[in-house]
């Protein structure tokens, strides 16, 4: 496994002052569960899917076709992680939450961002076992503006009822993004496969600090209004993040790559 040095830092650095980034800046953000290699590779792989090398190459093609600048990956397991860096490591940076676990990683185009620092956040996964989810602070190269990104994968019910662990994970994730928003006064973006719809959206967006790429709302003191159309794959941002028209790609190329859509949206950083 090829893995860049992992930074485990207690607190993010202060961002560059706002005057360093005059006016809005645009980029495309995505969340992409690429279906882990252990689901498809080998003798007992899932029927109907190619092995992970072919699927990872399609994932790269999809990122290019969608003009993605910044992506939260889920299930980017070691063989896929290594192949991604081998194929496009000269154009993309990747940060994993822990050196021994690349499943949940954040990728960014090197011609758009530089890494300031990264760290990990512990959340419960299957049966409450701890997994480490990545957070990065990136600098937008042409403006020097800083943006914070967290990516996560909350447990599904495939190994029993995991709703209590998902709820605990959401509380942790909400606390992280809220603290970054309140302390850094900079764009904060959250991506992930949450394995929930309204049960994720309502508690996570309570008080309105974070809002969804597909609408809905939950302002302080108001009832929760989940988006009309929801899946389990999400992108959210704070008040410094404005989303354009969302895209939920379920095309034939996506279906040949993974069992999730590729969700994305254009973003303006305020």
- How much strand content do the residues show? 25-35%
Helix content: 10-25%
Q: State the low-pLDDT regions, or none.
A: 2-23
Broad shape: globular
SSE string: EHEHEEEEEHEHEEEEHE
| Main CATH class | Alpha Beta
Main beta sheet, described? 7 strands, mixed
- State the secondary-structure class: alpha+beta
Instruction: Give average pLDDT, whole number.
Output: 91
- Count of discrete structural domains: 1
CATH topology: Deoxyribonuclease I, Chain A
N- to C-terminal separation?
Answer: 37 Å
- What is the H level of CATH, i.e. the homologous superfamily? Endonuclease/exonuclease/phosphatase
CATH architecture: 4-Layer Sandwich
Please count the beta strands (DSSP E, at least 2 residues each). 13
If you compute it from the alpha carbons, what radius of gyration comes out, rounded to the nearest whole angstrom? 17 Å
- Tally of separate helices: 5
Q: Could you characterize what this model shows?
A:
There is one protein chain. The chain is an alpha+beta fold. It has five helices and 13 strands. It has helices spanning 52-65, 78-88, 163-184, 198-204, 252-255; strands at residues 25-33, 70-74, 92-98, 101-109, 113-124, 130-140, 146-153, 188-193, 211-212, 233-237, 241-243, 247-249, 262-269. Strand 3 and strand 4 (101-109) form a beta hairpin. The protein is globular and about 55 Å long. The N and C termini lie far apart (37 Å).
